[in-house]
Structure to design on (161 residues):
């Protein structure tokens, strides 16, 4: 999610939608990921202006820093890696802190980059029905049918068949 800081800006067109999706996902976290609890939204770090969208802690005391996107892109990889670095500096390098990018879809290139480069980023597919929480149209919905255009009667001129 874009932020109002040196790295991004809140004027990003998807910012409000991403916030709504994040908030709705956080409210359903106990159903989606029963072993995790929401620690904080809009996580700030003392030595940086960047902010993670969400922090969760699981029952093994593992921290997860989340970045929410409507559609994951290359920028989201850099954002989450910056958040993880700040969180590790804040909590000490011995505490397990894992990166998560949540989006409605992930281009294959993003999945490949995470896997091939062993980035350790968890890619979470946000359930499609959550689109309504952010006012996002479902792109998989059937398109409107072509309207039926009424046929006008054929007018024949005299002398023509």
């Amino acid at each position: 999610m874009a932020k109002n800081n040196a790295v991004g800006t809140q004027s990003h067109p998807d910012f409000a939608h991403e916030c709504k999706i994040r908030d709705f996902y956080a409210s359903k976290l106990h159903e989606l990921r029963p072993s995790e609890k929401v620690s904080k939204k809009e996580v700030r770090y003392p030595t940086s202006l960047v902010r993670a969208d969400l922090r969760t802690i699981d029952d093994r005391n593992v921290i997860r820093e989340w970045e929410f996107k409507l559609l994951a892109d290359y920028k989201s990889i850099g954002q989450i890696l910056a958040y993880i670095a700040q969180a590790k500096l804040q909590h000490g390098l011995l505490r397990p802190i894992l990166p998560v990018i949540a989006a409605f879809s992930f281009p294959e290139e993003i999945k490949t980059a995470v896997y091939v480069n062993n980035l350790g980023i968890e890619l979470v597919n946000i359930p499609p029905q959550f689109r309504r929480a952010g006012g996002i149209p479902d792109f998989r919905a059937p398109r409107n049918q072509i309207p039926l255009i009424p046929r006008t009667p054929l007018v024949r001129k005299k002398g023509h068949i």
